[in-house]
Design brief:
Elements lengths: L3 E4 L5 H12 L9 H10 L5 E7 L2 E13 L6 E9 L8 H15 L4 E5 L2 H4 L5 E2 L3 E2 L8 E5 L7 E5 L8
Parallel strand pairs: 4-5, 7-9
Antiparallel strand pairs: 1-2, 2-3, 3-4, 3-9, 5-8, 6-8
Length: about 170
C-alpha cells in the first residue's frame, strides 16, 4: 500500500476530525474525545506538527505533536498524539510511517525529545520507554513513555497542553 505523508493543510481539518473520530470509536481506555483534542490543539495554536497519511489522495491517518512542559519548564519537548488510522487500515504500518516521519522532523528542528501515553510494546520499536522520574499524574508509569532525541531525558511532572481536556 503506497502512503504519502505530508503536513496538514487547512482543507484537511474535516477529514482529520473524521479519521480521528473513527480511529478511536471502539478503542478501549479512552474517553473518545481525541478528535476534539486535535481541534483544540489547533485552536490553541499548539500543533507543533500535524502530519497526515494519504492513500490515493484520501486522508487515512493523522498524528499530532504539541508542546509539553516538564515540571514547569519548556525544554523543547513535545507530546505525541493523538495518532489515528482508519480502523479498516490499522495494522498495515500507516501509524508507524506517521510516527517515523514525525520523529525525523523532530530530529531536524532542534527538538530535544518527546513523550506520549501508550502501549510500550508498540512504541518501543521507535525508541520510547518508561523513564524513572518522569511522571504524569493518574497515568501508570509504564504507559508514560519518552524518547530523547538530543540528550538527557528530564525528570519531573509532565503537563500536556490544556487542549487534552477538550470534550467537544
Amino acid at each position: 500500500m503506497k502512503i504519502e505523508i505530508r503536513k496538514e493543510k487547512p482543507a484537511d481539518i474535516d477529514a482529520i476530525f473524521s479519521v480521528t473520530e473513527k480511529a478511536f470509536l471502539n478503542a478501549q481506555h479512552t474517553q473518545h474525545t481525541e478528535q476534539f483534542i486535535v481541534n483544540a490543539l489547533r485552536n490553541n495554536q499548539a500543533l507543533s506538527l500535524s502530519l497526515v497519511a494519504l492513500h490515493n489522495n484520501i486522508i487515512v491517518g493523522h498524528v499530532a505533536f504539541s508542546p509539553v512542559s516538564i515540571s514547569g519548564c519548556h525544554q523543547h519537548w513535545l507530546g505525541v498524539g493523538p495518532i489515528s488510522v482508519l480502523p479498516h487500515l490499522q495494522n498495515r504500518g500507516i501509524g508507524a510511517q506517521l510516527m517515523q516521519a514525525g520523529l525525523d522532523w523532530l530530529a531536524n528542528v532542534g527538538i530535544d525529545g518527546c513523550v506520549l501515553v501508550g502501549d510500550p510494546r508498540f512504541y518501543s520499536r521507535f525508541g520510547f520507554s518508561a523513564q524513572h522520574g518522569l511522571i504524569l499524574p493518574e497515568v501508570p508509569a509504564e504507559y508514560l513513555l519518552a524518547k530523547s532525541i538530543s540528550g538527557v531525558i528530564p525528570q519531573g511532572i509532565v503537563t500536556f497542553n490544556e487542549a487534552f481536556q477538550a470534550k467537544q
